[in-house]
Design goal:
By secondary structure, this protein is mainly β. Strand 15 and strand 16 form a beta hairpin. The protein starts with a strand and ends in a 15-residue tail after the last helix.
Length: 350
Protein backbone atom coordinates (compact mmCIF):
# COMPACT_ATOMS: atom_id res chain seq x y z
CA UNK A 1 0.00 0.00 0.00
CA UNK A 2 1.14 3.52 -0.77
CA UNK A 3 -0.35 6.95 -0.40
CA UNK A 4 -0.35 9.16 -3.47
CA UNK A 5 -1.76 12.43 -4.68
CA UNK A 6 -5.07 12.74 -6.51
CA UNK A 7 -4.85 13.89 -10.11
CA UNK A 8 -6.09 17.38 -9.18
CA UNK A 9 -3.61 17.80 -6.30
CA UNK A 10 -0.68 18.86 -8.51
CA UNK A 11 -0.42 21.87 -10.81
CA UNK A 12 1.97 22.21 -13.76
CA UNK A 13 3.11 25.71 -14.75
CA UNK A 14 4.23 25.71 -18.38
CA UNK A 15 5.75 29.18 -18.12
CA UNK A 16 8.24 28.07 -15.47
CA UNK A 17 8.25 24.34 -16.34
CA UNK A 18 7.52 23.52 -12.71
CA UNK A 19 5.18 21.43 -10.56
CA UNK A 20 3.62 22.32 -7.22
CA UNK A 21 0.79 21.34 -4.91
CA UNK A 22 -2.39 23.28 -5.54
CA UNK A 23 -2.66 26.47 -3.41
CA UNK A 24 -5.60 25.09 -1.40
CA UNK A 25 -4.06 21.63 -0.97
CA UNK A 26 -5.78 19.62 1.77
CA UNK A 27 -4.32 16.21 2.60
CA UNK A 28 -7.78 14.93 3.58
CA UNK A 29 -9.14 15.76 0.12
CA UNK A 30 -6.24 15.54 -2.30
CA UNK A 31 -4.64 12.20 -1.41
CA UNK A 32 -5.45 8.67 -2.57
CA UNK A 33 -4.64 5.25 -1.20
CA UNK A 34 -3.25 2.81 -3.78
CA UNK A 35 -3.04 -0.89 -2.97
CA UNK A 36 -1.11 -2.95 -5.51
CA UNK A 37 -0.66 -6.71 -5.65
CA UNK A 38 2.29 -7.90 -7.73
CA UNK A 39 4.76 -10.78 -7.95
CA UNK A 40 7.90 -8.73 -8.60
CA UNK A 41 9.62 -5.61 -7.28
CA UNK A 42 8.68 -3.27 -10.15
CA UNK A 43 5.71 -1.09 -10.97
CA UNK A 44 5.47 -1.82 -14.69
CA UNK A 45 4.00 0.35 -17.44
CA UNK A 46 1.95 -0.29 -20.58
CA UNK A 47 4.58 0.22 -23.30
CA UNK A 48 3.77 -3.12 -24.96
CA UNK A 49 0.11 -3.39 -23.96
CA UNK A 50 -1.32 0.09 -24.37
CA UNK A 51 -3.92 1.26 -21.84
CA UNK A 52 -4.07 -2.20 -20.29
CA UNK A 53 -0.65 -2.76 -18.74
CA UNK A 54 2.29 -5.01 -19.49
CA UNK A 55 2.14 -6.99 -16.23
CA UNK A 56 -1.01 -9.08 -15.96
CA UNK A 57 -0.13 -9.97 -12.36
CA UNK A 58 -0.03 -6.29 -11.38
CA UNK A 59 -3.49 -5.41 -10.05
CA UNK A 60 -4.65 -2.74 -7.69
CA UNK A 61 -7.41 -0.82 -5.99
CA UNK A 62 -7.52 2.95 -5.55
CA UNK A 63 -9.66 4.75 -2.97
CA UNK A 64 -10.00 8.23 -1.55
CA UNK A 65 -9.05 9.12 2.03
CA UNK A 66 -12.53 8.22 3.25
CA UNK A 67 -12.15 4.71 1.86
CA UNK A 68 -14.46 5.22 -1.10
CA UNK A 69 -13.36 3.18 -4.14
CA UNK A 70 -12.13 5.10 -7.19
CA UNK A 71 -10.90 2.32 -9.47
CA UNK A 72 -9.67 -1.26 -9.48
CA UNK A 73 -8.21 -3.75 -11.91
CA UNK A 74 -4.98 -4.18 -13.82
CA UNK A 75 -2.94 -1.13 -12.86
CA UNK A 76 0.15 0.39 -14.46
CA UNK A 77 2.58 3.30 -14.49
CA UNK A 78 1.83 5.49 -17.52
CA UNK A 79 4.28 8.43 -17.30
CA UNK A 80 7.14 9.57 -15.12
CA UNK A 81 8.32 13.09 -14.36
CA UNK A 82 11.65 13.78 -12.67
CA UNK A 83 11.46 17.01 -10.70
CA UNK A 84 13.96 18.90 -8.57
CA UNK A 85 13.38 20.82 -5.34
CA UNK A 86 15.01 24.20 -4.63
CA UNK A 87 17.53 22.35 -2.44
CA UNK A 88 18.50 20.01 -5.27
CA UNK A 89 16.63 16.87 -4.19
CA UNK A 90 15.37 14.75 -7.09
CA UNK A 91 11.87 13.31 -6.91
CA UNK A 92 9.88 11.15 -9.32
CA UNK A 93 6.20 11.69 -10.05
CA UNK A 94 4.52 8.62 -11.52
CA UNK A 95 1.11 8.85 -13.23
CA UNK A 96 -0.85 5.72 -12.30
CA UNK A 97 -3.66 4.48 -14.55
CA UNK A 98 -6.32 1.79 -14.61
CA UNK A 99 -7.86 1.04 -18.00
CA UNK A 100 -6.58 4.23 -19.61
CA UNK A 101 -7.87 6.47 -16.81
CA UNK A 102 -5.38 8.35 -14.64
CA UNK A 103 -6.17 7.67 -10.97
CA UNK A 104 -3.34 9.36 -9.08
CA UNK A 105 0.31 10.25 -8.71
CA UNK A 106 2.79 8.12 -6.80
CA UNK A 107 5.89 9.98 -5.62
CA UNK A 108 9.29 8.91 -4.29
CA UNK A 109 9.15 11.69 -1.67
CA UNK A 110 6.34 13.96 -0.44
CA UNK A 111 6.07 17.49 -1.82
CA UNK A 112 5.96 20.60 0.34
CA UNK A 113 3.17 23.14 -0.02
CA UNK A 114 4.15 26.48 -1.48
CA UNK A 115 7.25 25.04 -3.17
CA UNK A 116 7.84 24.87 -6.94
CA UNK A 117 9.70 21.85 -8.33
CA UNK A 118 11.44 22.26 -11.68
CA UNK A 119 10.77 19.47 -14.20
CA UNK A 120 14.07 18.17 -15.55
CA UNK A 121 12.95 15.00 -17.35
CA UNK A 122 9.82 13.11 -18.33
CA UNK A 123 8.67 10.25 -20.53
CA UNK A 124 6.78 7.01 -20.89
CA UNK A 125 7.61 4.06 -18.68
CA UNK A 126 9.76 1.60 -20.63
CA UNK A 127 12.41 -1.00 -19.94
CA UNK A 128 14.73 -0.08 -22.78
CA UNK A 129 15.53 3.59 -23.21
CA UNK A 130 16.26 5.56 -20.06
CA UNK A 131 18.76 4.20 -17.55
CA UNK A 132 22.09 3.70 -19.38
CA UNK A 133 22.98 0.83 -17.07
CA UNK A 134 19.73 -1.09 -16.68
CA UNK A 135 17.69 0.40 -19.52
CA UNK A 136 14.73 0.58 -17.16
CA UNK A 137 12.36 3.42 -16.28
CA UNK A 138 10.07 1.30 -14.11
CA UNK A 139 9.62 2.39 -10.52
CA UNK A 140 10.91 0.08 -7.81
CA UNK A 141 8.34 -0.47 -5.06
CA UNK A 142 11.21 -0.03 -2.60
CA UNK A 143 11.49 3.58 -3.81
CA UNK A 144 8.07 4.20 -2.27
CA UNK A 145 9.46 3.35 1.16
CA UNK A 146 7.31 0.25 1.33
CA UNK A 147 9.75 -1.89 3.35
CA UNK A 148 10.10 -0.94 7.02
CA UNK A 149 13.58 -1.68 8.30
CA UNK A 150 16.35 -0.80 10.75
CA UNK A 151 19.44 1.15 9.74
CA UNK A 152 22.78 -0.53 10.38
CA UNK A 153 24.09 -0.13 13.92
CA UNK A 154 20.65 -0.08 15.58
CA UNK A 155 20.74 -2.14 18.77
CA UNK A 156 17.88 -4.47 19.68
CA UNK A 157 17.37 -6.10 23.06
CA UNK A 158 18.08 -9.83 22.85
CA UNK A 159 18.50 -12.73 25.26
CA UNK A 160 22.23 -11.89 25.18
CA UNK A 161 21.65 -8.21 25.94
CA UNK A 162 21.60 -5.28 23.54
CA UNK A 163 23.01 -6.36 20.17
CA UNK A 164 23.50 -4.45 16.89
CA UNK A 165 20.96 -5.51 14.31
CA UNK A 166 23.92 -6.31 12.02
CA UNK A 167 24.90 -9.18 14.35
CA UNK A 168 21.51 -10.84 14.67
CA UNK A 169 21.08 -14.13 12.84
CA UNK A 170 18.12 -16.51 12.36
CA UNK A 171 17.53 -18.38 15.60
CA UNK A 172 18.78 -15.57 17.85
CA UNK A 173 16.19 -14.68 20.48
CA UNK A 174 14.98 -11.08 20.47
CA UNK A 175 12.83 -9.46 23.16
CA UNK A 176 9.24 -8.81 22.05
CA UNK A 177 6.58 -6.83 23.90
CA UNK A 178 3.84 -9.44 23.55
CA UNK A 179 5.59 -12.84 23.56
CA UNK A 180 8.86 -12.46 25.46
CA UNK A 181 12.03 -13.62 23.73
CA UNK A 182 11.29 -14.98 20.25
CA UNK A 183 13.69 -16.50 17.71
CA UNK A 184 14.31 -14.51 14.55
CA UNK A 185 12.96 -16.48 11.61
CA UNK A 186 14.72 -14.55 8.82
CA UNK A 187 17.12 -11.61 8.61
CA UNK A 188 17.46 -9.64 5.39
CA UNK A 189 19.68 -6.77 4.32
CA UNK A 190 19.30 -4.11 1.62
CA UNK A 191 22.26 -1.87 0.77
CA UNK A 192 21.62 1.49 -0.89
CA UNK A 193 24.43 3.43 -2.55
CA UNK A 194 25.30 7.03 -1.73
CA UNK A 195 24.35 8.01 -5.29
CA UNK A 196 20.92 6.43 -4.95
CA UNK A 197 20.34 8.15 -1.61
CA UNK A 198 21.32 11.50 -3.12
CA UNK A 199 18.84 11.20 -5.98
CA UNK A 200 16.04 9.45 -4.01
CA UNK A 201 15.62 11.28 -0.68
CA UNK A 202 12.58 9.15 0.09
CA UNK A 203 14.94 6.24 0.71
CA UNK A 204 16.92 8.11 3.39
CA UNK A 205 16.33 7.13 7.02
CA UNK A 206 14.50 9.17 9.64
CA UNK A 207 16.64 9.91 12.70
CA UNK A 208 15.31 10.10 16.27
CA UNK A 209 17.96 12.05 18.17
CA UNK A 210 19.58 10.38 21.18
CA UNK A 211 18.01 11.27 24.55
CA UNK A 212 15.28 13.35 22.89
CA UNK A 213 12.41 11.39 24.48
CA UNK A 214 13.87 11.17 27.98
CA UNK A 215 17.33 11.33 29.54
CA UNK A 216 18.12 7.79 28.41
CA UNK A 217 15.94 7.23 25.34
CA UNK A 218 16.85 6.57 22.67
CA UNK A 219 20.20 5.33 23.93
CA UNK A 220 21.81 6.58 20.72
CA UNK A 221 20.51 8.14 17.52
CA UNK A 222 17.90 5.71 16.15
CA UNK A 223 17.59 5.56 12.36
CA UNK A 224 14.64 3.84 10.73
CA UNK A 225 13.34 3.69 7.17
CA UNK A 226 10.55 6.27 6.66
CA UNK A 227 7.73 3.70 6.67
CA UNK A 228 8.97 1.87 9.77
CA UNK A 229 6.20 1.93 12.34
CA UNK A 230 6.77 2.97 15.95
CA UNK A 231 4.45 2.27 18.88
CA UNK A 232 2.55 5.25 20.26
CA UNK A 233 0.61 5.30 23.52
CA UNK A 234 -1.34 8.08 25.24
CA UNK A 235 -4.74 8.82 26.69
CA UNK A 236 -5.70 10.17 23.25
CA UNK A 237 -5.18 6.86 21.45
CA UNK A 238 -7.92 5.18 23.48
CA UNK A 239 -10.22 8.17 23.01
CA UNK A 240 -9.67 8.49 19.26
CA UNK A 241 -9.10 4.89 18.13
CA UNK A 242 -10.54 2.65 20.84
CA UNK A 243 -7.21 1.08 21.76
CA UNK A 244 -4.43 2.23 24.05
CA UNK A 245 -1.54 1.50 21.65
CA UNK A 246 -1.21 2.16 17.93
CA UNK A 247 1.43 2.03 15.21
CA UNK A 248 2.53 5.12 13.29
CA UNK A 249 5.01 5.35 10.40
CA UNK A 250 8.01 7.25 11.76
CA UNK A 251 7.80 9.73 8.88
CA UNK A 252 4.28 10.74 10.00
CA UNK A 253 5.63 12.13 13.29
CA UNK A 254 8.79 13.75 11.89
CA UNK A 255 9.17 17.32 13.16
CA UNK A 256 12.43 18.53 11.54
CA UNK A 257 14.01 18.77 15.00
CA UNK A 258 14.32 15.65 17.16
CA UNK A 259 12.75 13.41 14.50
CA UNK A 260 14.05 14.39 11.10
CA UNK A 261 15.31 12.98 7.79
CA UNK A 262 18.96 11.97 7.78
CA UNK A 263 21.11 12.59 4.70
CA UNK A 264 23.95 10.02 4.66
CA UNK A 265 26.91 10.82 2.42
CA UNK A 266 27.84 7.14 2.16
CA UNK A 267 26.02 3.92 1.39
CA UNK A 268 23.84 2.45 4.11
CA UNK A 269 22.38 -0.95 4.85
CA UNK A 270 18.82 -1.56 6.02
CA UNK A 271 18.05 -4.73 7.99
CA UNK A 272 14.73 -6.59 8.12
CA UNK A 273 13.92 -9.08 10.89
CA UNK A 274 11.03 -11.50 10.50
CA UNK A 275 9.40 -13.55 13.26
CA UNK A 276 6.68 -16.18 13.19
CA UNK A 277 4.28 -13.34 14.09
CA UNK A 278 4.43 -9.61 13.59
CA UNK A 279 6.20 -8.47 16.75
CA UNK A 280 7.02 -5.31 18.67
CA UNK A 281 10.72 -5.18 19.51
CA UNK A 282 12.85 -2.90 21.67
CA UNK A 283 15.23 -0.73 19.64
CA UNK A 284 17.40 1.74 21.56
CA UNK A 285 14.75 1.73 24.30
CA UNK A 286 11.75 2.33 22.00
CA UNK A 287 9.10 -0.17 20.98
CA UNK A 288 8.95 -0.51 17.19
CA UNK A 289 7.68 -3.10 14.73
CA UNK A 290 9.46 -6.07 13.21
CA UNK A 291 9.26 -6.83 9.49
CA UNK A 292 5.65 -7.33 8.39
CA UNK A 293 5.38 -9.52 5.26
CA UNK A 294 2.46 -7.71 3.65
CA UNK A 295 1.90 -7.86 -0.08
CA UNK A 296 3.65 -4.57 -0.89
CA UNK A 297 6.59 -5.27 1.40
CA UNK A 298 7.12 -8.68 -0.21
CA UNK A 299 6.80 -7.21 -3.70
CA UNK A 300 9.66 -4.82 -2.92
CA UNK A 301 12.01 -7.75 -2.30
CA UNK A 302 13.76 -9.88 -4.94
CA UNK A 303 11.82 -12.95 -6.05
CA UNK A 304 14.33 -15.28 -4.34
CA UNK A 305 13.73 -13.63 -0.95
CA UNK A 306 9.97 -13.60 -1.49
CA UNK A 307 10.09 -17.36 -2.05
CA UNK A 308 12.29 -17.84 1.03
CA UNK A 309 9.86 -15.94 3.28
CA UNK A 310 6.85 -17.76 1.87
CA UNK A 311 8.65 -21.04 2.49
CA UNK A 312 9.28 -20.09 6.13
CA UNK A 313 5.75 -18.89 6.89
CA UNK A 314 3.76 -21.16 4.58
CA UNK A 315 0.07 -20.31 4.25
CA UNK A 316 0.39 -17.94 7.21
CA UNK A 317 2.01 -15.35 4.96
CA UNK A 318 -1.46 -14.59 3.53
CA UNK A 319 -3.23 -14.28 6.90
CA UNK A 320 -0.65 -12.78 9.27
CA UNK A 321 -1.95 -9.70 11.11
CA UNK A 322 -0.15 -6.62 12.39
CA UNK A 323 0.58 -6.57 16.13
CA UNK A 324 -1.36 -3.33 16.63
CA UNK A 325 -3.72 -1.05 14.74
CA UNK A 326 -1.76 0.79 12.02
CA UNK A 327 -2.73 4.43 11.62
CA UNK A 328 -2.79 6.25 8.32
CA UNK A 329 -0.83 9.53 8.15
CA UNK A 330 -3.97 11.66 8.41
CA UNK A 331 -5.05 9.68 11.49
CA UNK A 332 -1.63 10.25 13.07
CA UNK A 333 -2.21 13.98 12.55
CA UNK A 334 -5.24 13.75 14.84
CA UNK A 335 -3.00 12.31 17.55
CA UNK A 336 0.07 14.44 16.84
CA UNK A 337 -1.10 17.68 15.17
CA UNK A 338 1.05 19.13 12.39
CA UNK A 339 1.42 22.44 14.19
CA UNK A 340 3.05 20.82 17.24
CA UNK A 341 4.54 17.46 16.21
CA UNK A 342 5.31 16.82 19.88
CA UNK A 343 5.46 13.11 19.20
CA UNK A 344 8.00 12.35 21.93
CA UNK A 345 5.33 12.39 24.63
CA UNK A 346 3.49 9.59 22.80
CA UNK A 347 6.32 7.13 22.19
CA UNK A 348 6.09 3.84 24.06
CA UNK A 349 9.39 3.21 25.86
CA UNK A 350 10.84 0.32 27.81
Amino acid sequence: MAYGYSMDALVYDGATNSWSLRPDYDFTQHRVEINITDDDGYLGGDATNDEIGDDTNQTGTVSDMDGNPIASGQIYDELFYQIQSPTGDLIYLEVIEVGGVAVGFLVTAPLDTGVSYIEIDSGNVHTDDYDPITGDTRLLYSELDSVPCFCQGTTLMTAEGAQPVDWIRPGDKVMTKDHGFQPALWVGRTTISAKKLATSPGLCPIRITAHSIDTQTPAQDLRLSPEHRVLLKSYQTELLFGTDEVFSPIKAVANERDIAPDRPLHEISYYHILFQNHEIVLAEGLWVESFFPGKMALAALPAKLQAEIRGLLGAKVDTIQTARLCLKPWEVNLLVPQETKQAMRNFSVA
